[in-house]
């Protein structure tokens, strides 16, 4: 029988993994950039997600957590749409996750790092 010291019991709290992705720019400046915060591998189901910028918090759309295929952890996705003009100005957007399995807020940042503010 294989034993892993890092393996967690099915009822033990598990902190989330946070990955922040973004869509690409469009030639149409009215098309917004979509930021997607994928949060996975957490237990228990309770989780809080906030979107932040230097100016404060922004309203995002967070799905209800769903149980993963193996049934031992949960995952969810939160999205935020921002204007291309704000994105091209180089504003930083933060997906902030609070979960009972960790003592700190987990933060993932997105910002345009492409050539001279162009898509």
UniProtKB/TrEMBL annotation:
Composition skew (Polar residues), residue ranges: 70-79
InterPro entries per UniProt: Ig-like_dom, Ig-like_dom_sf, Ig-like_fold, Ig/MHC_CS, Ig_C1-set, Immune_Resp_Modulators
Cross-referenced Gene3D superfamilies: Immunoglobulins (2.60.40.10)
Keyword match Disulfide bond: yes
Residues covered by the Ig-like domain: 16-107
Keyword entries, A-Z: Disulfide bond, Immunoglobulin domain
Superkingdom of the organism of origin: Eukaryota
GO biological processes: immune system process
Region annotation Disordered: where it falls in the sequence: 55-79
Pfam family, one: C1-set
UniProt name for this protein: Ig-like domain-containing protein
């Amino acid at each position: 029988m294989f034993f892993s010291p890092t393996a967690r019991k099915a009822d033990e709290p598990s902190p989330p993994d946070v990955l922040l992705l973004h869509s690409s720019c469009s030639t149409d400046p009215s098309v917004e950039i979509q930021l997607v915060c994928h949060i996975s591998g957490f237990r228990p189901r309770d989780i809080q997600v906030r979107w932040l910028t230097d100016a404060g918090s922004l309203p995002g759309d967070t799905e209800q957590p769903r149980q993963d295929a193996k049934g031992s952890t949960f995952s969810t996705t939160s999205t935020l749409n921002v204007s291309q003009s704000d994105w091209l100005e180089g504003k930083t957007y933060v997906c902030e996750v609070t979960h009972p399995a960790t003592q700190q807020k987990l933060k993932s940042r997105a910002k345009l790092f492409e050539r001279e503010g162009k898509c």
